[in-house]
Amino acid sequence: MKSNVLENNIIVIFVLLLISFGIYLSFIGGYGSDEDTLPMIYVFESKYYSGTFVSSRFTGNPVAELGIGFLAFFFGSFAANLVTFLFLVFGLIFFFLTLNKKFEINELFLFLLLCLTSPILFFDNIEPIDYSWALLFFSLGSYFYSKKIFELSILFFAFCIGTRINYLLFILAFIIFFENDSKMYFKRKIIIFLCSFTMGGLFYLPIWFDNSFDLSWLTAARPTDQGLLGLASRFLYKTYIATGYLVSLILFVILLKYFSKLKRIKNKTLIFSLILSNLLIFFWIPAEYSYLQIYLIALLYIIYELRIKKLLYLICICHFFSWFVSISFLEINHKDNTYCGPKNAISAKIKFQVERGYLSNYLKSREKISCWVHGKDERSLKILEGKSLKKQK
Hints:
Layout: H1 2-28, H2 37-49, H3 62-75, H4 77-99, H5 105-116, H6 119-123, H7 131-146, H8 150-163, H9 167-177, H10 186-201, H11 205-210, H12 227-243, H13 245-257, H14 268-284, H15 293-305, H16 309-324, E1 325-334, E2 345-356, H17 358-364, H18 378-385
Antiparallel strand pairs: 1-2
């Protein structure tokens, strides 16, 4: 009994240390290394100063553009990073609560330990970018749906769609496959989805109008220059990297060994539908690793549900090991090998390499914001220093 209490206390302390470390990195992280951050902030600046409509990317992500832009504009990079990181933590909490009726604090911290040690989930959400924003709204919508508070569920699903439009597929999968005690007619599920879709779609009216009612803005640029083989190669390699160098092998062996246990997982159809839908989206556009966040969270939830603590701790150790050391089996050549150039892979060859881990890469990448800052005007200097971007009167 005492050993279990000690074990649970250690898990809680370690999770709290991870969260504290995330808050510290939010403070020192500046405006990050993602090339989409500054365009997102500029959307808010443009509306604030001139009322002019602009979009940060193809579809734009209106809710996150306004939210992150507001935080950066009035409070600086620390606020934008901190809110983004905390959205990850609360998104994971509500995801867990949605799938677990009985709230057990020790079980929650065990799941958080699995997720927060994942370098993709941890480091990619200490950037002023929209992944965790969509996750939180999706988790809140799912949570209220599970509690049959459908009005709030539709509202948060709409915010989720307004943050990242690809979450439409995840919302549809959740509404259709979520297992509840009472039987809900399929017709009602479709109505709830259509209400969420309609409300969420309203966020995209400005960009639709701006494109003269054309829908080409819905299609992002895809790396199709190397054909289907190139897409498949990127998909497989990046999925493997996002899952983890060591974790991928362990999961393959373990899931085969304990395949029969998967049948006992509640909402297993939902969880696998989320994984499949995320993988399909990623195959369509295998770009950033964080496109796979729902896949990673659902996969780690399966590991949690297997209830094999030795396996769970092994996954956490492998996750944490990759913070400091990365093992690669491929040497990838990029079209532009300069520091600030886009990382478009053109070829690869098998080569075993031991490289620096995610933590070192994260700290090194804090300098990359300078790649998208030109000139030495007041705004540029504030960006480099992570300060509030509001002009001083």
